[in-house]
Amino acid sequence: MTQPKTVDFWFDPACPWAWMTSRWIIEASKLRDLDVRWNVMSLYVLNEPKLDELPEQYRAFMPGTLPAVRVATAVAEQYDNETLGRLYTALGNRIHLRKDKDPESYIPSALDAVGLPADLAGAAKTDEWDEALRASHQRGIGLVGTDVGTPVVAVENDEGVKVGLFGPVVTPAPQGEAAAKLWDGVYAVTTTPGFYELKRSRTDGPNFDNLVDDL
Predict the structure, then answer these.
(1) What are the tens digits of pLDDT across the range 99-153?
(2) I need a surface site. Which of 43, 100, 146, 157 has the fewest CB within 10 A?
(3) The whole model's pTM is what?
(4) CA separation for the pair 69, 49 (Å, rounded)
(5) Residue 164 has what DSSP assignment?
């Protein structure tokens, strides 16, 4: 029997592309022997050194990403990985499927859906968990460099080398065997020394039509 592959997945709940990729890796894990380990990263922390250089609209968006990652980090530090994954699902359902962009609304609702204490919402307004957030962020970004974003996916390949990749960026989230085949391709590139990039211009925005709001 082969051991399941541990796949580390770094996310910021605010990113629709990371959300799409997370739904794909969950689907792929149903058909491939994958153990998904959730980790928090932060678009704010990633862009902090260059905030003044960002387009005005994106710069204004950045502070609003902090409440959800702070709450997710508090949960990551105090609960198990399955609970963090369920919270991410609940947050993503509200932010991306229900289009709720108000942390005062979606954070308490997500905590309630997962059965977590309501007072965890207080983490959104404090820097208490910022050191742990930055450490988690650095563990992910340290595998891929700072010229990428979220999500980051990392796996130990057959040679025993842990390889991190940005992406895959895909829409809509592949289902069934298509999800498994995409995983096979992603894993294949981790076994190629010196592989860095495949890319083409995006012609579509995030498409959530095939996703189910189930939490």
Answers:
(1) 999 999 999 999 999 999 999 999 999 999 999 999 999 999 999 998 888 999 9
(2) 146
(3) 0.94
(4) 18
(5) E
